[in-house]
Amino acid sequence: MIVMAKEHKNTKYLVEYGDPVGIIAAQSVGEPGTQMILRSFHLAGIESTISTSGLPRIIELVDAKKKPSTPITFIYLDDKNNKNFEKAEDMLKKINEVRMDSVAKRILENFSKGKIKVTLDLQELQSEGLTSKQIASKIAKEFDLEAKADAANSVIVNMHTRNLKSIRATSIKIMKMLVSGVEGAGKGTIRRDEKTGEFYLVSAGSNIEGIMQVEGVDKSRTTTNDIFAIYRLFGIEAARNSLANELKKTLKEQKISVQDRHLNIIADAMTASGNIKGVGRHGLSGEKKSVFARAAYEETLKHLIHAAAFGEIDTMNGVTENILVGKQIPIGTGSVHLAIKKEDLAKVKPKD
Q1: I need a surface site. Which of 75, 118, 255, 290 has the fewest CB within 10 A?
Q2: Who's near 38: CB < 8 A, 6+ residues apart?
Q3: For residues 171-209, b (16+ Cβ closer than 10 Å) or e, as one string?
Q4: Alpha helix (H) ranges present in the chain?
Q5: In 3D, which of 229, 251, 249 has the Cα closest to residue 239?
Q6: For the stretch 311-322, what's the b/e string if a residue is b when 16 or more beta carbons lie within 10 angstroms of its beta carbon?
Q7: Nearest to 103 by CA among 180, 28, 204
Q8: pLDDT (tens digit, 9 = 90+) per residue, 218-269?
């Protein structure tokens, strides 16, 4: 085995038997994390407002939060659209999530006549490439009601009822309805890659599944920082890769160098079960087989009482539980057990 290891071209990356790779991975991320605290506060209000970065982003990832605090999708366009700014603008209008409350100035309810009047913002309509007739058509289709646009850039909705509760409920739904774009895509902007010269979109949302259904989007390159959105669409392997890449990207942005293999181990551990699990008490730490290992992390009394009540047995195979009771830990030389034959033992001469 030793000869083979020496001849291997990647010998320097090999791990010796008994190396505590999990502990080293945790230390490799935990120690730089203390440096990231000051940097995160220093950047507050500047670039960090665009997307969560630094230590808050690391915590978000390792805790496996269902939704990132600032979801972002990088939308790449196909060869027909990525070099033309006007086509990129058209693609942005198709994807941009526009709701009624962003294009309407006000909404008036006429309870005596059973009608709702939505006054539209002409400037906002033009910027989104919409007309009052299109808005009226969408309201009529969405709620199965009679809706007409008038000359004053307003839409009149006939409720055919004077029920106050029904009119009020409908007006609230109208103001929240999706007017154009992709549900959950958020607002986007156009950016240009300085190296390739192509245009791409950055959207403040994570509905990658809906975005990919838009014609003209390059499905092979479009991605998001929402790990669970990746998991739902592409599966656990893609989520594992995305998690590792997000960890690498976040550390790189802070100019902190951590070897990829440490981050890969964390991503592997979090996704090995087929689901994405955080490292805290609701995930990996809370699901350890060892009673003492669970008790050493958080909620000590709860775990000990539960183990006593249900008669749990701790086999003491891990590191944490052995440290807790003062035994030799099963890593490094502690993972090796020496034995000697009886006949050889008889040959050993006792010292005087």
Answers
A1: 255
A2: none
A3: beebeeeebbbbebbbebeeeeeeeeebbbbbbbbbbbe
A4: 2-7, 21-42, 54-62, 85-95, 100-103, 122-128, 132-143, 164-176, 208-212, 227-234, 236-253, 260-271, 291-297, 300-310, 319-325, 342-347
A5: 229
A6: eeebeeebbbbb
A7: 180
A8: 888 999 999 999 999 999 999 999 999 999 988 888 888 888 889 999 999 9
